[in-house]
């Protein structure tokens, strides 16, 4: 007999009375997936404060592909895409269902590029470390969209806008990365909190531009000076932010949470976009 969760994952989604918020979450260390700390507690609280989603779609910094892909299997596996962490982290399973029909609908919404149906990936730690705190019962379908590493920031920002209709169907779209992410410059002495001057400066600049709806400057982040180059030595952790911004509607407000630097050169600053 099919479970209620699986039935939910294999039927079409209907229009909702509320527009679902959009989130960008600074995910930081994979250990946040199992630790009870200030970040994970905020994720758990967020899961109770926003409307219950019909599905969750995650754009994670940790799934890079040539072309744009979406997970389309019934039950995505839990991927442990890291090394050097305690066995307890590798033992975590997050058995949320997928939603193949939603994956197909997503592909039909996107007109700017082909969206390939993927049956091999699953949920990487950029997805499950967050979602397991928000929805610990694993009873909401979770999908991932890959980041096409061959495309520039403008591509990702514009692609996101084509997914806006899913917000009307109660789908929570969640970008998972970090605004400032430079592991080569990390300081273990500052791992529990603290940022270099340049880290705090550029993170505040990013927040200012988000608050002012100056998304063009954020798309063209390479023009923001040397601090931006240091904050984004490679773009994969920054691009999920552009997906979140690309989904902002005219009536949405922006707020920030988990606004903290750790390790000197990484920020956990997160963004909520929602109708007041």
TrEMBL record:
Keyword set, alphabetical order: Dioxygenase, Metal-binding, Oxidoreductase, Zinc
EC class (word): oxidoreductase
InterPro entries tied to this protein: Extradiol_dOase_DODA, Xdiol_dOase_suB
Keyword Oxidoreductase among record annotations: yes
Stored CDD domains: 45_DOPA_Dioxygenase (cd07363)
Pfam families: LigB (PF02900)
GO MF term set: ferrous iron binding; stizolobate synthase activity; zinc ion binding
EC code(s) of this entry: 1.13.11.29
Domain Extradiol ring-cleavage dioxygenase class III enzyme subunit B span(s) in chain numbering: 50-250
Family: Belongs to the DODA-type extradiol aromatic ring-opening dioxygenase family.
Annotated protein name in UniProt: 4,5-DOPA dioxygenase extradiol
Gene that this sequence comes from: ygiD
